[in-house]
Fold these 4 entries.
Entry 1:
Amino acid sequence: MAPISKECDYLVIGGGSGGLASARRASGQWRAKTIAVESSRLGGTCVNVGCVPKKVTWNAAAIAETLHEAKAYGFSIKETAPFDWTTFKHKRDAYVSRLNGIYEKNLEKDKVEWLHGRAHFLSKNEVEVVLHDGSKQTIRAKNILIATGGHPNIPKDIPGSELGITSDGFFELEKRPEKVALVGAGYIAVEMAGMFRHLGSETHLFIRHDTFLRSFDPMIQETITAEYERQGIIIHRQSSQQKLQKDPTTGKLTLHYSDSTTKSSTLELDCLLWAIGRAPEVEDLALPNAGVKQSEKGHIIADEYQNTNIPHIYSLGDVSGNIELTPVAIAAGRLLANRLFGGPAHKNSKLDYSNIPSVVFAHPEVGSIGLSEPDARKKYGDDNIKVYNTSFTAMYYAMMDSDADKAPTKYKLVVEGEEERVVGLHILGAGCSEMLQGFGVAVKMGARKRDFDACVAIHPTSAEELVTLK
């Protein structure tokens, strides 16, 4: 049977948050004939194996923390059974499935045609899609967006590395591992280590240096690393992994490693999770057929307008490697659709990639927007930078009997010049994820320290400390 041929104004390859936001804007608002292609479940990494199920699991871990702390507030809570990981997992899966359905309904509402299959380029304007039933369709498009996202890396030079899982595999676990190791120092490793620990697993975190979250301000790095140790997470600094083995009888894993305290040791585990970075999902796109340029790491090279080197081919999101956050991809996708199909009023539409807030759902939460203190000093010079810090114990912990049960709260404001324009805001403590959104607006608007000072504090809150800094 010959392939079916179609034509459209806009072809979106990738059904993640960014691609679908762009497709829906193009079709629903601007009436461009739009086709979207996705080989897996709609919603991409964020909905299926990222932000959404991660936050649900973080909520469960936060409840476990609260149950532990409830005694200090006069509650006597007896757990009749340990956390039911299996029941929770299936309920979380059902929630994600409902979201998949909502995404599909939204595509129908905005008249976006959705093809369930795998796409590869035949030429600059033509793509072949191999559908899941084995049939093929050829699509000729005036404009093509590549928004295929990425996938987790597994080390290739460590024997037995395939015996471990990645963040994708975390959401497939049917039961809680009693003893788990995570390798990595980024937000995925840190978030999942916290969730494992507070849901009852003995947790080991292997990092290459002495702190983790190394792209964040040093205050964040040092405080959260120390706090994780206080909470009982075992951190292996300056570590490397030699090999991973599996006992065919028991199913247990044995990790051979070195760290700052030993040159050669082993650790028996139920599960090992690799969180060593992500790679762009480009392997079978046949990009050379379209002449699309890639970086050394395989990311599609795109400018601030999402243009690749080929006219009418665009790229955004994780596949381009520029600030790999779901809301960034969504915003860039919508603005791109406006520029392509919204007429002269939108001819310069593009995303401003500066001052984008980000949060790590650690225990406690971490929030950051703008420059770290070292980066600010490097950009503006030491004489032009002033730093305001505060460190305190949140009122929530006032009822705790022991200081060992009290988590830290620390905030830092980095300001520049005589006007003391805020160029960096870094917060760590309970509630930071919700707090940062509002303060992020202020920083994005160019707020000065005096603007923070002029805002009357809301008492008693932790957030008030940011508008009373001395």
Entry 2:
Amino acid sequence: MIVQEIPANGTTPATNGTSTTPSTPPLHAVVIGAGIGGLLAAIGLRFDGHSVTVLDQASSFGEVGAGMRIPPNSFKLLHRWGIDLTYMKKTYSNGNRFLRYDDGHVIADMPHGIPEWDFGGSYLMVHRADYHTVLLAKARELGVDVQANRRVDGYDWDAPAALLSDGSRVTGDLLVVADGVQSKARKAFQGHALPPVDTGDISYRVLVPGQDMLSDPDMRDLISQPWVSSWCGPDAHVIGYPVRGGEIYNVVFCVAESTMNDQKLAENETKLVIDDNAELVERFAKWEPRVRKLAALTGKGFLKWRLYDLDMVDHWAHPSGKAVLLGDASHPMLPYMASGAAMACEDAAVLRKSLQGATPATLADAIKTYERVRQPRASALQRWGRQLQAAYHLPDGPQQEERDAAMAQDNEKNPIYWGHNERRAWLFGHDAEEWGQSKGEKTNGQAKQ
């Protein structure tokens, strides 16, 4: 195992203006999972002088994933930490636009305004691979030891240590388990099995070349006017937005699996590659022309994903006091809130702050603080994601008409979380490093939930 050297004064390497000089000896953290949450946790801990090893089962890191969003509540943390997104290809979001599925009529616009002024950070639409590349480069720049092709098969929680498939073990003071929705470690934290639950929905994730849309007068506004467009219809909705400055249009078709007749996902299979878009084209044949065109532009070789949900994870801190869950391992979120990566970023920030000044003797208390601070907020957003699943997929009728009317109102009856200004302030104005003092935190508990 490679353990990075810490400078003699205990500070982190140069290039970051927020590093601290710990008054206690640094810890050695072993992070399982080099996804967005794992890398952000590693970066945050390294800023404070801790030694960090990251283990990931992937043989290499490359062009993986599709579009995602970086809202102000995570952007402000990235900016403060010196994670420079200046030269990363990106699109600034106008806001969220909701449309009827059959004629494209705008149900409601929910503009972001000027999020830098209102919430302290930009709202970006990016390609996940580009974002991951920036984080990976920052982690390595800071001296994080990122190891690929290192599959973790088990744990020694008392050591603590990660047990690898090749028979070796990586020991540290703290294990940060960020191994995703299918986490192998979660059962040990809860004391019982807590498998992901199939929601009954599947998603098709597609990247369409922007030039194919710009050449079509009916489609070009979807690129040139960068809204997150959401078409809501019976048992399905479609979300689209441009990334990489309009080079690519990211489309997600979310559908009740029972309404699809293409290749089925096997039991416990999370994704597969679809080679023929005929079924997708047929499924959306009665939707408005732009959605039909998007379905036709999917081509071949796009991904079909099973959407999972999870019951409340009660314990993010392991009983040993030497391990924590982070990101999707503790609070996997349905994509309807577009907050999964942002919540992982907030996790990393709170974990970092909780561990400042911690020693092996006080580690158990520190990670319980992390759990106490993060759990209520992440769990509230999980619940809202479940509600949005039902709200997006209503059939035409009285409930749908009531939903559409409520979407245009700035009050608590709006079914879209950020459609209510007070809730939007709680979501986007939050500062995970201030623990309750950020803009929007003075709203009452009912409004938040």
Entry 3:
Amino acid sequence: MDSATSRPAIVIDNGTGYTKMGFAGNVEPCFTLPTVVAINESFVNQPRSSGKGSNWLAQHSAGVMADLDFYIGDEALSRSRSNNTYTLTNPIRNGQVDNWDAMERFWQQCIFNYLRCDPEDHYFLLTESPLTPPESREYTGEIMFETFNVPGLYIAVQPVLALAAGYTTSKCEMTGVVVDVGDGATHVVPVADGYVIGSSIKSIPIAGKDVTLFIQQLMRERGEHVPPEDSFEVARKVKETYCYTSSDIVKEFNKYDREPAKYIKQYKGIKPRTGAPYSCDIGYERFLGPEVFFSPEIYSSDFSTPLPAVIDKCIQSAPIDTRRALYKNVVLSGGSTMFKDFHRRLQRDLKKIVDARVLASDARLGGEIKAQPVEVNVVSHPIQRYAVWFGGSVLASTSEFFSACHTKAEYEEYGASICRTNPVFKGMY
């Protein structure tokens, strides 16, 4: 039998909204599916019979069935829509695993139903959000080594992979700020020479799901006729299809009011239960959705710092000798940075903040010393949506990858604690 190191590793990037999975060396994931599990409730609530030995077999087989009767991804969504016995569970909330049972089931189907491979034959690269507690890594290691019996496992930090995604170009720049806007969490993570500057990580409670909720709210308040059980899905589709980032809200409002026919779109859907068609208008939410990152106060009163200001704060709290390099390489990652012109708006707003600071310091010094202008550059690339997965694919296809993994033998000798630390956070734990 040839060893697992001669086969491509499996890369699974579990996100709050979508999970991307595939084999190392590929340019894009084989599957991208919503991170949801539909579990059959009828087995869970089975009455336990009191009679000794009575239908022990029935109970046992019900238990086995309950372990097998579940769906993930789009299948889960359609099952729960058409059938009342299935309940939907989101295993990951705000970037952290919330429900380990569901997560284990999710991985089970990823490996056996989608990737269709034997986990004992492949090394695995899984990803995690930057502020994950070490215990969570231990659980992940335990499930991977005990349940799936994998030969080796590496748990990578998402933003570092997003930077590594730029490896394919001639200049491999491992210093930069990764702005990772996913569905459930937004992190601004400064990385210097491949090491995360842990103390400067900033996290924002506004992410892709909030854009969806905001669009849902705008459409509801305007009285669009969307069936309530479908309204979240409709808002998500509207977000993914029609939203864009505007440079000036007031101008956009005027544009829409001047020629509504040009800007207002129609959404057509079918009611899930009755099959009746319906349609609704999509107006201002096209640009108001993504605006929550730049003017969060329109969405929630709890958090009001715009994303560019958070990025600036993050860089200002990093060591002074890394700051210029960080401003020069702001890398976007995650599906919610895919809005049209998102990077332009971010770069413009960030540059404004930086220029204002340079001017203020010049004024303070009375023009005796001229500060060098700071170069601000927000990097946008076509694979932003899969940047983390692609970075994982690049990393796992290098020869060093296998030596960096935790192996089954190490796990058996030392236990799950080997997964606690991650070398990219040098000295954090």
Entry 4:
Amino acid sequence: MNRSKSNISIGVIIGNRDFFPDSLVEKARSEIIDVFAKLKLTPVLLESTDTKLGGVETFKEAQKCAELFKKHSEEISGVLVLLPNFGDEKGVADTLKLANLNVPILVQAYPDELTKMNVVNRRDSWCGKISVCNNLYQYGIKYSLTSQHVSFPTDALFQQDLIDFVAVCRVVKGLKNVRIGAVGARPGAFNTVRYSEKILQRNGITVTTVDLSEILGKANKLTKDDASVKRHLEAINAYVPQGKTPNEAMLQIAKLDVVLKDFMEEYALDATAIQCWTSLQQNYGCNVCTSMSIMSENMLPSACEVDVTGTLTMYAMQLASGSPSALVDWNNNYADNPNKCVLFHCGNWAKSFLPDMKMDTAPILGTTVGVENTYGALDGRTPANPLTYGRISTDDPKGVIKAYLGEGALTDDPLKTFGNRAVAEIPDLQGLMQFVCRNGFEHHVVMNASQTGSILEEALGNYMGWEVYNHKV
């Protein structure tokens, strides 16, 4: 499901110390440019003529590198520190302090080779990396580490570290500027989705609210003859088979889709959380699930029940993996297997999770509002896939944002029911449920078909500064 193709700019600092061989710096610069080209990343680094071979050692060289970074500050999503030799820890730290980019930083160090431990080839980067990190810690600069203490840029392991670091950069940059639309009021019976707008705003997360009546009022003014309605109706039919859904309900869904799209464009929104029951069914006569599914599939995540921090979680996971996320209920046990459970929602998951989906009704909701008013829900089963799950929440008594996450698997175990559904297998699921319940988390969780738990932990915990629990067994 990975769709991430964006070309990201990363600043590069090549550390140097004058009593180590200059050739090591020159070669490191050439190697990292090749690696970036291979991974389709854009390096922002000094020319080899700007400083001694493009390295950074003295304060003046740090100033030059910082000025370069500031010039490209709108483009740079993160910084890579390369240590082909011991490096000058002050040069690296001063560059980052002067540039003041406030982006993630990855510290790499080259390994020494046993056959090249003479004066001409010796690096001492193992030791230098510790010294650089010590200085960054002193300066209060947050940073990330490679999975092995030293590695060559040409190593597959380092290149995966770099790919994961780029994902961390995407998450951090995205969350610091995300704009979420809250459409309508939360269901009255769902205190569980309450959240603090003020805490979110302090973390750079903006929530724009709109009354559901405004959305429905605008939708009701549209007609089947409007060009925008015709376009959206065609798009919906191309997205999912109409099945037994009446034409009148399809028209209502298309009109609602037009207004929601306009609302998102007007306020430059990245995600939405929508009051999906019961006012919608009682006053408008359909479900909004199909529209929400289309938005999530198009990387504009949409969560039901005005779960704003739920859609924030969807967005974070989408940034980490490059693929759509889905908001689900921790819904049922799976027989007597303690490490399996059923994930469920009425019918708004992205198409990526529902290869066999069809448009239908929402039977549970229909028991109170009339099944004929619930057309637009999607029915489908999620097949076996990798799984990252998690939840971001505002903890108002503590005044913080907290999160939990982990990895598992979606399985093909038999499951005869309706709606959007999946079976998840999670190591020590019972222990996880203990944590969720004891720490006051919501019954909603987010799933993503990826293995990105470590990326999210680094982004949310280290750089966003949130309280993060990673469920590892």
